[in-house]
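Narrative of activities, Objective 1.

The group set out to show that a structural description can be obtained from nothing but a protein's sequence at a throughput compatible with the screening campaign. Below is one input-output pair from the validation batch, recorded exactly as produced.
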Amino acid sequence: MSVLDVFGDDARRDEPGAAPPPSPSPSPAETATAPARRGRGTWPPALLAGSVLFGVIATLLLLAPWLAPYPPAQQDLVARLEGSSAAHLLGTDHLGRDVLSRLLDGGRFSLAVASVTLLICAVTGTLVGFVVARRGGWLDTVVMRVTDILLAFPEMVVALFLVAILGTGDLTLVLALTIGGWTPFCRLARGVALEINGRDFIEAAHALGCSGWFIIRRHLLPNALPPLLAHAAVRFGHKLITVGALSFLGLGVQPPFSDWGSMLSEAIPYLDRLPMLVLAPGAAIFIAALSVTLAGRGLETRRARAGRST
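Output recorded for this entry:
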């Protein structure tokens, strides 16, 4: 009897020149879940590009008091309507103010108004959507008809109506952006809540005596958060453009303060002489809105991939 017969496969593995044993093949479950894990861990190019671009813009605007070469309201009538130079990288406007300084300072107002109004709309719309989905009945019908009415009026029309009552100013701008801005979030949150309400874990929470607010906080909000974030990113670009449009019409910030929309309005008479006065704030609005919209589309793509892989 040889040593191979006594120790079997262990001795054969130790024999010089013996081939290594075949590695165990992955199970069907591991093969199916590997692409799913890779799909969830990857960032779509749109999400990555939009996040990086918006991060750069937000950093520049936060550091505007230190990056701006001149005070934004400082006038120099001798140097009015000058082109790009070493002293003024983007030139000066009709009052001799540095365009780059005003661009950095005005962007802080534009992004602040868009962020505040979007936060109010998202929180209000999400809570209302969850509540009407949980309650149902006449409350759901009334709220949905109200959202239909508000969606029928553009934000510009609402702003003009409010100006006639309240006058121009920051309050008018915020109200114009929030009165109808909560309705898309309400519809989205309601749809997600109606989809989840019939699931087993909701029935179990009811059986355990959990309150409605606990169910909203513990079950509805975590499931609705991914689509709400993606929608909020896309809506942010729309809010930013609307802020610029309302300021362009004179319904936003008032002099001596400025934002990108008011800079566009002041630069129109000098378009043929110094196009940079229009191109600078216009490009700022476009790039900022594009960056957030790209991030929102990337979030939607990432969520869709995760849904297909599960």
